[in-house]
């Protein structure tokens, strides 16, 4: 009994559990229920003042008749004048891209093809930008992405592509779609090297990496435009960058895009609106106002792995755009968080309870050999 | 576009919640917009899945127990009143409330009610006693696979031994209060609600 008491005492020294320990988890849990960093990134951000659009009408209540009249006027202007004009422009832009890229694709001479492709693309993107009434301010254009590199940017909406392509030629990479978008994709490929993947190929990371490296190895090809977050975020933060594009080993040109939501929120909430619905909403807002910053090119440094490189680029983009830098995965929009993270938390708490491995094992070894072995086992499993 | 307008909070409801929980008007409207943003089904109630969609809560080892605390016995949905009632436990105790006499019914965020909330996290079968088995299960949730059954058992035994005064080998609510009498419960179980 004396030995058992000694054993008990030694356990008390190294295992300081208290019933109050639960308070920490409890409070953290309720704090995250009241406000958390992740879920609010997947819906449009709230505005400080109302911009006369019902869609931004979250908590604002009816204030005065005059405001309602103003709103009514706004509706007339937006839906009666702006929307039809913009739709016409957009239709023109898209048909032009289809027709002209196909025509250019027929030309025999490669140099002529490249030359004309650039002109055609820039013209069509300019039309599309006007159709959305996007007021874009480009900063630091001396850092514009060059051939043989990858351009990475934070992702808020598919319109990001139009905004960037307005100022330069990029090769796009993405999933091959069906329907109108698929037609546009196939037309674009005829005159310049874009990379479209089938659904099945997307899963094959080696295939993706190979096609990417082949493209950047060819210095005559335009820089590839990649959105490493993998999904649209609401432009208040930058979420985890997938490391695939950072493993290739070429120069990365980071670009930060920040939208001003006051004239129209550009975020595409894909679970709420389909593409056509979204475009109509864009075209019936006041305008899309955004700033684009071209950041100095970055290369992977010695001793840095792809994940660290990706985080470094992400931090630079977040700092420039005034966005919150998060480590959470944008995929949490649709998927559940991995159990591994919960196991991390449990491991941390266990460390608090049992302290370092060296302190605990020699005292109780005579009395409880099985216990000691299983403790070693769980510690070695780390 | 119009669904939000139909679920706006009425003034009378805000007043009732204010009286019951002690939150201010702006805190209630702010928490209401949080409630609606979590309510993906837009039916005015939250289910367990709605809570589990919060990543920071999903990785909390006691996440499921905390979520459970919002749902009354046997129910799967919680409405805004229930949501606020549970959150009210975490409202900080203001100075002017400390001296109030317990003439009216005890406020939801009193020290006793905060302790009751924590007690219920341990008490899995809601029988007002924390048995050794329940304590073990909660401990297992907190440490995962990193500590052996035997060690966990000794922790549980020692904890019950220290707390149990009437010898029934389980911890009642009064024994729980006694064990934690030196702990600053008011501070540990309060969170800041923005105004």
Q: What is the overall pLDDT average of chain B?
A: 85
Give the count of structural domains of chain A. Answer: 1
What is the rounded distance between the termini of chain A? Answer: 34 Å
User: What is the strand content of chain B?
Assistant: under 5%
**Portion in helices of chain B:** 55-70%
Show unreliable segments of chain B: 1-6
Spatial arrangement of strands, main beta sheet of chain A: 1-8-7-2-5-3-4
GO molecular function (chain B): calcium ion binding
Organism (chain B): Larimichthys crocea (Large yellow croaker)
Domain EF-hand (chain B): 26-61, 110-145, 151-186
InterPro entries (chain B): Calcineurin_B_homologous, EF-hand-dom_pair, EF_Hand_1_Ca_BS, EF_hand_dom
Could you characterize the architecture of this molecule?
The complex is a heterodimer of chains A (382) and B (195). By secondary structure, chain A is an alpha/beta fold. Chain A has one domain (65-333). Helices cover 48% and strands 11% of the residues of chain A. Chain A has 13 helices and nine strands. Chain A has helices at 2-14, 22-34, 65-106, 110-132, 159-165, 179-191, 199-202, 205-217, 275-283, 306-321, 339-354, 357-360, 369-380; strands at residues 134-139, 150-153, 171-175, 195-197, 224-226, 237-238, 252-260, 288-294, 324-325. The relative contact order of chain A is 0.14. The two termini of chain B are 27 Å apart. The longest helix of chain B is centred in the last third of the chain and has 15 residues, at 149-163. Chain B has helices at residues 3-6, 11-21, 25-38, 48-52, 55-58, 63-70, 80-87, 95-98, 111-122, 132-143, 149-163, 173-179, 185-188; strands at 45-46, 78-79, 129-130, 171-172. The interface between A and B is large, with 59 and 57 residues. Chain B: Residues 26-61, 110-145, 151-186 form the EF-hand domain. Chain B: InterPro entries: Calcineurin_B_homologous, EF-hand-dom_pair, EF_Hand_1_Ca_BS, EF_hand_dom. Chain B: GO terms for molecular function: calcium ion binding.
